[in-house]
Design brief:
Blueprint lengths: L2 E7 L3 E7 L6 E8 L3 H15 L1 E8 L9 H17 L3 E5 L3 H11 L4 H25 L1
Amino acid sequence: MTRLMGLDVGDKTIGVAVSDELGWTAQGVETIKRQSKEKDFARLSELVSQYQIGAFVVGLPKNMNGTIGPRAEMCQAFGKLLEERTSLPVHMWDERLTTMAAERMLISADVSRQKRKTVIDKMAATLILQGYLDAKSR
């Protein structure tokens, strides 16, 4: 099994997580501060090499009723570009509640609001990837 990279793509940041070699668990790696497409993709390419990534799982923030809104369209466009630039497969994963779940987990772990801001995207990426891995192993 090749390692997967989970991405929580936002306007300002990209949360990044990677799977272990067996594809069982997801670990948060970093939050990329978005600067430009070139810089964002350059950093992602470095991480792909570093972790020997074979495919991506990009969070798709559907609306609660299952429809695709502007945020989901932005994520789909990002996924398409990622596939073109890396030649690696990109899987879109419904992530409707991951950011809220990440927030709740951090609050229950008593993480300060300031610290939550810095790790929320990485945590959301971890939950996106873990959800995908769990669904695939069923």
